[in-house]
Amino acid sequence: MNMYQRESILQYWHSKLNKKLFNNELEVAKIIVRNDEEAVKNAEEGIEARYIDWYGRDYIVFYPYTWMAEEPETDNETIEVPVSVYDVTVLLHEMVHQYCNQNGIDDIDLNGKHNENFREAAEKHGLTQYGYQLQAGLEDEIDAELTWFREWGY
Ligand SMILES: [Zn+2]
User: Fold this and answer.
1) DSSP bridge partners of 128
2) How far is the CA of 93 from the centre of ligand 1 (A)?
3) 122 CA to middle of ligand 1, Å?
4) If you measure from the C-alpha of residue 114 to the centroid of ligand 1, how many angstroms do you get, rounded to a whole number?
5) How many domains does one find in the chain?
6) Tens of pLDDT, residues 123-143
7) What's the pTM value of the predicted model, to 2 decimals?
8) CA–CA distance, 118 with 113 (Å, rounded to integer)
């Protein structure tokens, strides 16, 4: 799976989770998977993904350290690690930021930490543990579909 396939699959999940968990109220966000120096730098600082509202257009950018660390020699075209439940969880976390942004909800405190508003929005939209884990039933559902994807070569 190369980074463009990852982007397509995550784009699919954005649309699917938008329908399922957000009543289709989120704007279409462009999913970008980066595999460059900035991605490594962000990933090393613990930033896995980021939601960006750039002049009114929504982007979710992934800095996927896990497989970059596993296969540091890979180039853009030869990343073999499939999209995981973890990736979808990170996506959903960023979608909650997108939801908060669209609805004027302040979700990050001045100290840079996720606040109570974020937690509330996350729990309303399929997440637990302050927005870092999927609710159990949802996790099973996503896992089953990803397994199906993998059986078809994605
Ligand atoms: Zn966050």
Assistant:
1) 133
2) 6
3) 10
4) 6
5) 1
6) 999 999 889 999 999 999 999
7) 0.89
8) 10
